From TrEMBL:
SUPFAM superfamilies: PLC-like phosphodiesterases (SSF51695). This is Phosphoinositide-specific phospholipase C domain-containing protein. It holds the Pfam family PI-PLC_X. GO terms for molecular function: phosphoric diester hydrolase activity. It comes from the Eukaryota.
Length: 292
C-alpha cells in the first residue's frame, strides 16, 4: 500500500511522500492506496506560510465560497490532486486489468465526506465497489480474492475521520467501510516493532486486515524522509521487521517512496512462501502483486 499516495514529486507536491505518481505505483504492482481528502481554496504554499506567520488560520468568506474537493496532505497549498482525475485513472486501471483487486483507504478531511462520496459515484467506480449483504458496514467473512474477481467487485473502500464512525453504530455511506471496524495497525513512525496503535483491545486476529505502517518521517522536521525509506524499504529491513510480528503476519504493508528499495520483491517472495495456505501480504501502495 502506498502511504499518502496522492503526494508525489511527479505531481509537484512540496515535501512529497513519494517520488512517482500513484498511477505508476499501480502499474508496477502496488494494490493499495492511502488518500487524504481536503477542502481546497486555491492557496499556494506561499499563502500557507504567510498565514502561519501572521496567525491567520481562517478562510475569508470569498475563499470559502470557492472551496473544492482535493486530495492533499494537511494543506492543499503544499500540493493537491483533482479527485476526478485520480478516481477516473483508478477506474481505467480496473477496466483494463480484470483480475486485479484494489484497496483504497481514505483519511477524510472535515467537511469532505459527502463530496468524496459524490466524486466516487461520478467516477463510475461504483460498479466495482464491494458491498456487504446487509449494507450496514459489517462483515463477518471476507470474500477470497478469486470471489472478488469473479463477482467483479474488485474495489474495497475504507475511510476514517471527517464524520466516519463505526458502521455498527452509525450509518456509513453505501459501499464505504469504517477503517477501524476492520483494521488493526502498527504505530506510525515505528520501524522496529510490531506493537499496535490504539487500544490494547485492538487485537489483530479480531479484524480482517492487519496493516504494518512501514515508514518514518524525518525526526527533526516531521516531514517524509527518503533517507529513511532507503533503509526501511530494503529487503533485509523488511524481513527483520516482519519477523517481529509473532501473533499474525501483516497482510498490508504501507510505505513511503514506493519506488525506492525492494518492497515489491519482498512482498512477492512472502506471498510465494505462503501460497494458498495463509494470509497474503499486500504491499498497499508499496507492494507487489497479490498471489492467491
Amino acid at each position: 500500500m502506498v502511504h499518502n499516495a496522492m503526494s508525489s514529486e511527479d505531481d509537484s507536491f512540496y515535501a512529497a511522500n513519494n517520488d512517482l505518481s500513484l498511477e505508476k505505483a499501480l502499474v508496477e504492482g502496488y494494490r493499495g492506496l492511502m488518500l487524504d481528502s481536503c477542502l481546497c481554496n486555491g492557496d499556494t504554499i506561499v499563502d500557507v506560510i504567510q498565514d502561519f506567520v501572521t496567525g491567520n488560520d481562517e478562510d475569508t468568506e470569498e475563499n470559502a465560497e470557492e472551496q473544492y474537493l482535493g486530495f492533499c496532505h494537511g494543506t492543499c497549498g503544499a500540493g493537491s490532486r483533482k479527485p476526478e482525475t485520480v478516481l477516473n485513472n483508478i477506474k481505467t486501471f480496473l477496466d483494463v486489468n480484470p483480475n486485479e483487486v484494489l484497496i483504497l483507504e481514505f483519511e477524510v478531511g472535515e467537511g469532505t465526506l459527502e463530496l468524496l462520496y459524490e466524486a466516487i459515484n461520478d467516477s463510475g467506480l461504483e460498479k466495482y465497489v464491494l458491498r456487504d449483504e446487509e449494507n450496514d458496514g459489517t462483515v463477518t467473512t471476507w470474500p477470497t480474492l478469486q470471489q472478488l474477481i469473479s463477482s467483479n467487485r474488485r474495489l474495497l473502500l475504507f475511510a476514517h475521520n471527517g464524520g466516519m464512525e463505526s458502521c455498527e453504530t452509525s450509518t456509513c455511506p453505501e459501499g464505504i467501510f469504517y477503517t477501524y471496524d476492520h483494521f488493526s495497525q502498527t504505530n506510525w513512525n515505528d520501524g522496529d516493532t510490531c506493537e499496535l496503535r490504539g487500544s490494547v483491545d485492538t487485537i489483530p486476529d479480531k479484524h480482517g486486515f492487519f496493516l504494518m505502517n512501514h515508514w518514518k518521517n524525518d525526526e527533526n522536521l516531521d516531514l517524509p524522509s527518503k533517507t529513511n525509506a532507503e533503509e526501511f524499504n530494503t529487503y533485509e529491513f523488511l524481513s527483520t521487521r516482519l519477523g517481529k510480528c509473532d501473533e499474525r503476519v501483516p497482510n498490508i504493508v504501507a510505505v513511503d517512496f514506493w519506488s525506492t528499495g525492494d518492497v515489491l520483491k519482498f512482498v512477492e517472495d512472502q506471498n510465494t512462501k505462503i501460497g494458498g495456505g495463509g494470509d497474503a501480504v499486500v504491499a498497499a501502495s508499496r507492494s507487489g502483486s497479490i498471489r492467491h
